[in-house]
Request: fold
Amino acid sequence: MECIGNSNTHRIHIIFPDDSKEFKCPYILAITHEYKEGDSIILESNNQESSPKIVTSAVESTIDSLFSILYHSQNKNPILVPLLPSNPNGIPYYQQLSIECFDETLARQFYRIDNQVVSMIEDAKKIISGLKGKKVGEQVILNGYSSSGVFAQRFALLHPELVKEACIGGAIGSMPLPITEYQGKEIGYPLGIADYETLTGKPFDIESYKKIKFHYYVTEGENERKSETRFTEDNEPAPMCDMSYMERSVPQHVGQTIRDCFGRDSFERFNAQLVVAEDMGLSIDYHQPYSGLNHHNINGAAHSFIGSCITESNNLSQNNSEKTKK
Reply:
């Protein structure tokens, strides 16, 4: 463990893997000096794909998240940023937990990178407890925007028992639903769970998933930027941030099925999926699209929204803790 940042409010560490660890890539851990016992770790994956910049980018992301929490709320939760590997060949897409991450031949030392992140969480809990003498909450709060928002969606699907809340921005076009089929059409990972048990070796824990509170936010101009390499069914450039069109992230047949079932436009699709999610008893809070903004200029609004969500979560935890003590 190496300290790479220290101030009167926080310390930032980088933790490297070794033979005693069950993870094969490092992670960043930011610990504020005054966090409250029982507060959850905030987990936000890196989404920098240029290998030489991964550590620098992740540190910047950690600091950015930290200041979001400090200045947009009264929270002082620890922050964990897994430095998920960049893959020059594109597949597996570790930073979005693509289906190839479950293929040991392809993923090799990063096979089941989601389980490796679970090990990082447990490692971070021990470090924080050892340094501060105070325990953090058992469950994490997931935070992510764009690609890291996709990671948050899929990590929650894979490990719902570990997740308290998830704050997800810029990723409405790739929201998973814990269903095996819709209107007679099978929907597999990562947008459904038809093959979930085959991939993970465990049944889907729907009761834990229902307990997660999801917060979604998006901009009005989400679909403005178009891809130069992906195309819609009408042979038009697909929206850059709609992962249902990116085969690297979503198998082509799964993306096509989800669009056939719920709509080609990401807003239309998300709204249709919300109806199904509500019928299933899922807890999804959707902030109305931020007007006048697009996918790449939302920082201020996003930080305020994230801060309010975490404040609400922490207050609820503190109230429950006080009731338990009584």
Q: What stands out?
A: The longest helix spans residues 299-325.
